[in-house]
């Protein structure tokens, strides 16, 4: 009987001798511990995962041989490596910072403390890439495809008076800002959209909300903030032609000197509105303009 027990103990010792410990620490580029990192270990058909603690520590009980280790964390690039482990091993893993590029974020102050979940302002941004794709002739062309905007056109050519209606309100109920400074008239709140050259615009921020508490009673419809392009030493000349005798000329120059920067632009847009049509006179057709 004692001999049988002795054999069982030997078998048990042999089984436990096959398991080894793989442990390690996860740090960032500054040698600081990285906690809450997901550590996955694959060995053959077996897969196990753990989460690093506040010291960046983790450990696995594995069989000797080849293993694949993977470390994932939202703020760092994924780490993958294959190891040959035949005895208890301690490893150190350094993760590289991973920057996530989000879309452009617009922050509008409300001048009072508020929970972000309770702020209902809808901000629409028209960036320079979108403006270039649409090839607008005037500023009204930049805004015409935006949400809840209606352009009031008082003539056929781009240079004629054009105003905006935002969220169903009148043109006097929308405030225009140029780089955050009020641009619309204090007298009647109306701004002629044809006065703003398209070539100086970097992006347009449209706030679809009642902001009368911030910008006055004429901001019931919302606010349109025009951001101009950054100063660059450039000289630009543009020519454009279109139907109905449309002609467009634009010239601009921009530069900077120490803390002073300037941008000057000249635009001329002309459209006769005439088109050719045929008129039958007696037995022949003549071409007229209308």
Describe the structure.
The protein has 290 residues and is mainly beta. 17% of the residues are buried. The radius of gyration is 34 Å and the shape is elongated. It contains four helices and 19 strands. Helix content is 11%, strand content 46%. Strands 8-13-14-11-12 form a five-stranded mixed sheet. Strand 18 and strand 19 form a beta hairpin.
Query: Would you identify the CATH architecture of the largest domain?
Result: Beta Complex
Q: At the first level of CATH, what is the class of the largest domain?
A: Mainly Beta
Strand order of the largest sheet: 8-13-14-11-12
What is the helical fraction, as a range of percent? 10-25%
What Rg do the Cα atoms give?
Answer: 34 Å
Category by helix and strand content: mainly beta
Integer average pLDDT: 78
How many independent structural domains? 2
Q: How many β-strands, per DSSP?
A: 19
Proportion of residues in extended strands: over 45%
| SSE arrangement, N to C | HEEEEEEEEHHEEEEEHEEEEEE
Global outline: elongated
Largest sheet: 5 strands, mixed
């Amino acid at each position: 009987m004692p001999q049988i027990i002795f054999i069982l103990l030997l078998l048990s010792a042999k089984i436990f001798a096959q398991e080894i410990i793989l442990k390690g620490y996860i740090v960032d580029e500054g040698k600081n511990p990285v906690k809450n990192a997901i550590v996955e270990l694959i060995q053959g058909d077996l897969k196990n995962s753990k989460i690093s603690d506040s010291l960046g520590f983790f450990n696995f009980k594995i069989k000797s041989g080849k293993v694949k280790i993977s470390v994932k964390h939202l703020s760092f690039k994924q780490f993958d490596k294959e190891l040959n482990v035949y005895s208890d091993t301690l490893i150190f893993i350094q993760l590289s910072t991973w920057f996530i590029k989000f879309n452009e974020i617009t922050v509008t102050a409300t001048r009072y403390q508020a929970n972000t979940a309770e702020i209902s302002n809808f901000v629409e941004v028209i960036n320079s890439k979108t403006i270039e794709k649409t090839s607008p002739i005037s500023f009204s062309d930049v805004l015409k495809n935006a949400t809840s905007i209606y352009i009031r056109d008082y003539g056929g050519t781009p240079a004629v008076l054009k105003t905006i209606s935002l969220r169903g309100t009148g043109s006097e109920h929308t405030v225009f800002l140029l780089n955050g400074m009020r641009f619309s008239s204090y007298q009647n709140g109306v701004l002629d959209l044809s006065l703003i050259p398209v070539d100086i615009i970097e992006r347009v921020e449209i706030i679809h909300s009642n902001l009368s508490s911030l910008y006055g009673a004429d901001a019931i419809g919302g606010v349109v903030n025009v951001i101009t392009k950054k100063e660059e030493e450039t000289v630009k000349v543009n020519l454009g032609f279109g139907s109905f005798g449309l002609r467009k000329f634009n010239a601009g120059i921009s530069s900077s000197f120490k803390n002073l920067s300037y941008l000057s632009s000249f635009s001329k847009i002309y459209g006769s509105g005439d088109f050719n049509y045929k008129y039958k006179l007696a037995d022949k057709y003549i071409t007229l303009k209308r």
